[in-house]
Amino acid sequence: MPMVNLTVNGQPVTVPEGTVLLEAVRAAGVDLPTLCYHEGLAPYGACRLCMVSIIAPYQTIVASCAYPAEEGIVVETDAPEALAARRLALEFLLSRCPQSDVIWEMAAEEGVTASRFGAPPPEQAGELCMLCGLCVRVCREAIGAAAISFIGRGMERRVGTPFDVQSDACIGCGACAEICPTGAIEIEDRGNKRILHTWNTTVELHACPECGRFFAPKPTAFLKEMLPEVADVWALCPECRQRRTARQWIEQAPVSPA
Q1: Which fold has domain 1-127?
Q2: Stretch 115-127: mean pLDDT, rounded?
Q3: Residues 91 and 25: beta-carbon distance below 8 Å
Q4: How far is it, in rounded angstroms, from Cα 7 to Cα 201?
Q5: Are 53 and 37 in contact (CB under 8 A)?
């Protein structure tokens, strides 16, 4: 695989061609803040918290999560303009989501203690969604459901289901809540139902055939079609699955001679 050589904060770094600049910066041991980046999803560049300065062979400031590592470039993560851009982005996020502990912690690490842009309207005072798009992207790119999407523009932009009603495309996997960096997505398991409050959606849960506990949405038809050799195992809850695997391992283990 072709490799790319660059310099980050004076340190030489070599990464595979096609690596985003953020990963090259991490390879240099630098921990940049980010809320919208995930290694398993396509770059998006929404939060603007990973801004860095390229000082050679040209000068520019870029979102490192959406910019490719290039041969011979020299990157400074703590250049004044990069620091200013990251702090400005954090002020915007604090103004939108003043109740988010995650954003406050990231702001404190960057030396930001307040936002000059004021507070959101009273009806949005408890807002935790900072429009990073991770939930939308994981649903579309990883799960393949596309059950949620961005709605509206500008100040009215938000994430939701079509017409804010039950999404028939939602399989209730919970990937959106798992990947959300600020805890903005509310999901509750109640009996044999999984209620995705944020999406106004309810899905039926599958019961473990061994212990009877409801634990996950019903994926059995999909599993039998795509993964027939393991469908029966994955139909079990994690605890029963672990017990069955351990039991099979013991049964198949060679017996030592006396």
Answers
A1: Ubiquitin-like (UB roll) (3.10.20)
A2: 87
A3: no
A4: 48
A5: no
